Amino acid sequence: MSEALRAEEKKLRMLRFIVDLNQAVLMQQRDLTLREAFDILKSTRRAALNLFPGKDEVFELIYTPRFRRIIRERFVIVGGLSCK
Predict the structure, then answer these.
(1) Burial annotation 37-52 (CB, 10 A radius, 16+ → b, else e)
(2) In terms of CB atoms within 10 Å, which end of the chain has fewer, N or C?
(3) Dist CA 61 CA 4 (whole Å)
(4) Of 65, 69, 67, 74, which Cα lies nearest the Cα of 32?
């Protein structure tokens, strides 16, 4: 396995860890505010883009809907969310 491929896999594992951890916080932290939930989404996006610069659209396609669903269910927001 090439060094570049190993580095890419390491970055993917890190991204999965960050996303999983932050989704768990959103689902389980009892005293979390809506503002803090959006801050978690924003910081997760920043971390992902630090690992994979220029992949904004991929994050929006794959991860943002997951985070929005968790936030919508957690805070019982009827309709939808429009957050960036």
Answers:
(1) beebbeebbebbeeee
(2) N
(3) 25
(4) 74
Token look-up 């927001």 returns 77
Quote the tokens at residue 62: 């794959």
Per-position b or e across 71-80, b if 16+ CB within 10 A of its CB: beeeeeeeee
**Is 17 exposed, middle or buried, given 0-12, 13-18 or 19+ CB atoms closer than 10 A?**
exposed
**Res. 79 pLDDT band, cuts 50 70 90:** low
CA distance 78 to 72: 7
